[in-house]
Amino acid sequence: MIEVLCSYKCKNQSFFLAVQYMDRYFKMTERQLEPTDLHQIGVAAMFMACKYEEIYPFKLKLVHEKIAHEKISKEKIRSQERDIMRTLNHDMSCTTSYEFMMNSLYLLELNKLLDEKYFKYLVKVCIYLSKMNQYDYELQQTQNCSVLAASTIYVAFKIIEQLKEDFPLEEKVRFFMTISHVIIDQRTIRNIKNF
Question: Residue 117 has what DSSP assignment?
Fold first, then answer.
């Protein structure tokens, strides 16, 4: 999915939505799925996410010929799309860890605090770590998107702190915990300092 959506210059949010649709479908479907169904479901999820997120979404012909390499018929892609929609009760709008993470970075006003170079690097690290989180199905099923985003941002902060010594880590972590509705106590502060 990462490779396909990157090569077609899709938004990062399209990837996160596609994964969200696929994971929710796996969790909610009553169908007995086979490993061979994975490709078809993934193709349909990308097709749906692009329809929802992109200004110029994929055309079915492109999905069939280039993404599915003509191994999945147009009708099977449409059918899979209908099945996913029904299974998800047509609830296609959902918050992803990517949205939560990006909104948090701007609420923290890091784009004003950091030089453009460091801010771009922070965003890049956050996106990379978030995409890696998507590979762990168990993690995705046991943690909500705000927790995943918060942990990703924290790790990215630690990386930035190593590059920029004057980065106000403790202050930004406190503020981030406040906007994330994470309860902060003295033990948490000590752990942050000792990390």
Answer: H
pLDDT in tens, 77-133: 999 999 999 999 998 888 888 988 888 888 888 888 888 888 899 899 999 999 998
Choose the final residue of a domain: 87, 120, 145. Answer: 87
- Tell me if 170 is assigned to some domain: yes
104 and 184 part of one domain = yes
Q: What is the pLDDT of residues 47-81, one digit of tens each?
A: 999 999 999 999 999 999 999 999 999 999 999 99
Domain that holds residue 49: 2-87
What value, to the nearest 5°, has the Cα angle with vertex 169 and ends 124 and 139? 55
For the chain, helix (H) and strand (E) counts, in that order, are 12, 0
Of the candidates 68, 145, 60, 135, which has an alpha carbon nearest to the alpha carbon of residue 100?
145
Which pLDDT tens digit goes with each residue over 24-39?
A: 999 899 989 888 899 9
